Recover the amino acids of this structure.
């Protein structure tokens, strides 16, 4: 573990923001007593939330924590996620309710009139889900099989996920920005049988091939027998006879009825691969009953969801935020959401505000990096649109610096919307530390306190709880949506999260501070994870991508603070051929990383050295590299094998 990063999150403003009186008066949770009630009996608290779902069989035990770190929630209970997200709303007469207002990136392009905007109802979703579930069955997919999903932000992505849950297949969604190589790895290690993808995805108005760009991976995926392709852009992708099927034709031909499979509360629901401290991504596994309980509960209580809310979680379905707060939480609650396909600045930089105004969004949930981009583009852009429908704002993915918080509050929220800064992770499945907007007085930059039913602490270097000050963030009680294991790597799960402080204490991997009011201030990662624009990458992943280039002898990667993206990737490379240090080689390496992992992993800067700074025992001194990159005075360099390499690097950094 490395030292705790310093971010301007610590530059606090003294200003605090109590819930506006009008907001508190109409909030479902407005009495702080809920915290005491949940703390007194957390199992009863979560059981109350679980009881709001439809269970095919009741559970026997709320929580079994007799064999930590292995938790069982709602043992004996049976339910189906798609039935909770769809059937029960349709049965209650809400079939015509809009689940998603879907907005295409090119909605206003000529000729898009009837395909650029769609109001997706709960009935439509149920029909498509049942049909696609039958398509998958027909392709030999059943309970417990893994299905890959590699899609643009189109309604079919949600349908594919729901259809998996209907038959008990385990979905493994891979963010569409990842490369073919990353997709292949994630499909291979999970043994996926089927992949759902699209012909192409729109990038700033032009189709970027998806199917054609991944066609080469299938020969190497022994277990993958079928591919279903959504036609998004009419690009006429290559289709292999017998293996590849078009979505529309298959769905149309399918039987419209597929009964929901009764699933055990602890049956796997999905896998989501995320970066950890090594080059190999971790297959986070979530299960059925506990996950759905906590995503529905948090979506309700943190966003104070009302019947007429128009909820906009502007994440991508490929990340956990999209899973929990575009798909499962909102649909379980029968909410109406906005799903936007494209870039925030296409075709113009006020695209989001145009969308928010068009659909009268009342809740907006996004990431600090996007807020900082909007800040840069100026407050005149939101000011051109009527954003008066907004009543609540949310933030997720990285620490939000107070300056961005205050800007968001003033220029997007018109000064009257509470902000919920929600801290959680892929591993936690759902929101863990966050204000409750009708109760909590917020402090810009702090995620405030654990939500009712959740317990967190900060431990110092001697493993003692810190009452006021900094340390390592841990979670000290099991929670319903917790990851249950790492797919096929149960020991790595225990090792990574439950070893450092024993099997009852979950090691988050974040550094944090706690203040005099017991508010948590998350600072950033303490492991080798870099958070670029809210996307998790590991230094090792990027390093191994770089060294897989034949021209690279050695590489070290670090994260540095970046005003726009939170953190940025910087790499230090020893080329095979010492003369290879020019811009062309840098471009080539960046392209190589894009191919291996995805564009999001391209280093912002690459610096060259004949040797990397190492200790005498040969360990790369990353700490020193970070100081060099930050332009800091270097501390003790006496352990360095060859101090001259530092001068070379410093010269490059100050020169560029
Ligand atoms: C960071 C995203 C500060 C943190 C849901 C965590 C945050 C990692 C916040 C998880 C927040 C997320 N304040 N930091 N409100 N939310 N993080 O798995 O470092 O993509 O460990 O899940 O993002 O990232 P992940």
């Amino acid at each position: 573990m490395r030292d705790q990063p310093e971010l301007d999150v610590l530059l606090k403003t003294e200003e605090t923001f109590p819930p506006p009186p009008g907001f508190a008066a109409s909030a479902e949770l407005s009495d702080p007593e809920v915290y005491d009630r949940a703390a007194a009996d957390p199992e009863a608290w979560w059981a109350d939330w679980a009881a709001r779902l439809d269970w095919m069989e009741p559970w026997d035990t709320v929580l079994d924590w007799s064999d930590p770190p292995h938790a069982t929630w709602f043992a004996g209970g049976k339910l189906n996620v798609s039935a909770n997200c769809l059937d029960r709303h349709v049965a209650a007469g809400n079939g015509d309710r809009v689940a998603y207002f879907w907005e295409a990136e090119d909605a206003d392009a000529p000729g898009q009139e009837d395909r650029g905007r769609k109001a997706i109802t709960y009935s439509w979703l149920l029909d498509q889900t049942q049909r696609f579930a039958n398509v998958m069955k027909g392709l030999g997919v059943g309970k417990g099989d893994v299905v890959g999903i590699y899609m643009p932000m189109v309604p079919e992505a949600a349908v594919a996920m729901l259809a998996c849950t209907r038959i008990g297949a385990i979905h493994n969604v891979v963010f569409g920005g990842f490369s073919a190589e990353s997709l292949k790895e994630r499909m291979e290690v999970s043994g996926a049988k089927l992949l759902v993808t699209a012909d192409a995805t729109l990038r700033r108005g032009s189709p970027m091939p998806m199917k054609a760009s991944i066609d080469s991976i299938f020969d190497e995926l022994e277990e993958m027998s079928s591919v279903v392709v959504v036609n998004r852009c009419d690009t006429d992708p290559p289709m292999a006879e017998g293996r590849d099927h078009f979505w529309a034709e298959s769905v149309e031909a399918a039987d419209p009825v597929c009964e929901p499979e009764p699933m055990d509360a602890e049956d796997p629901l999905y896998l989501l691969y995320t970066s950890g401290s090594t080059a190999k991504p971790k297959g986070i596994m979530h299960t059925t009953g506990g996950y759905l309980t906590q995503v529905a509960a948090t979506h309700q209580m943190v966003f104070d969801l009302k019947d007429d809310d128009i909820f906009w979680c502007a994440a991508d379905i490929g990340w956990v935020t999209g899973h929990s707060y575009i798909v499962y939480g909102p649909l379980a609650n029968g909410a109406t959401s906005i799903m936007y396909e494209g870039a925030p600045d296409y075709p113009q930089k006020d695209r989001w505000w145009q969308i928010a105004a068009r659909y009268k969004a009342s809740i907006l949930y996004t990431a600090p990096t996007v807020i900082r981009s909007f800040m840069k583009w100026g407050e005149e852009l939101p000011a051109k649109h009527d954003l008066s429908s907004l009543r609540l704002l949310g933030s997720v993915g990285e620490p939000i610096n107070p300056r961005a918080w205050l800007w968001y509050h003033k220029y997007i929220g018109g000064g009257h919307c509470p902000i919920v800064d929600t801290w959680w992770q892929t591993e936690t499945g759902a929101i863990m530390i966050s204000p409750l907007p009708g109760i909590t007085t917020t402090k810009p930059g702090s995620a405030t306190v654990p939500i009712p039913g959740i317990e967190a602490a900060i431990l110092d270097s001697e493993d003692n709880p810190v009452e006021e000050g900094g340390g390592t963030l841990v979670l000290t009680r099991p929670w319903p949506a917790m990851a249950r294991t790492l797919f096929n790597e149960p020991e790595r799960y225990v090792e990574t999260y439950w070893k450092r402080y024993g099997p009852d204490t979950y090691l988050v991997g974040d550094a944090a501070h706690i203040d005099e009011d017991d508010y948590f201030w998350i600072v950033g990662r303490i492991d080798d994870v870099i958070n670029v624009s809210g996307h998790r990458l590991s230094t090792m992943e990027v390093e191994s991508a770089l060294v897989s280039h034949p021209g690279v002898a050695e590489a070290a990667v670090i994260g540095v603070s970046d005003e726009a993206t939170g953190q940025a990737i910087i790499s230090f490379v020893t080329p095979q051929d010492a003369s290879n240090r020019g811009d062309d080689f840098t471009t080539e390496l960046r392209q190589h990383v894009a191919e291996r992992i995805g564009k999001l992993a391209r280093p912002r800067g690459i610096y060259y050295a004949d040797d990397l700074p190492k200790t005498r025992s040969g360990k790369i001194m990353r700490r020193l590299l970070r100081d060099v990159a930050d332009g800091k005075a270097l501390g003790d360099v006496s352990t360095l094998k060859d101090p001259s390499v530092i001068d070379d690097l410093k010269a490059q950094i100050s020169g560029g």
Remarks:
- The radius of gyration is 24 Å.
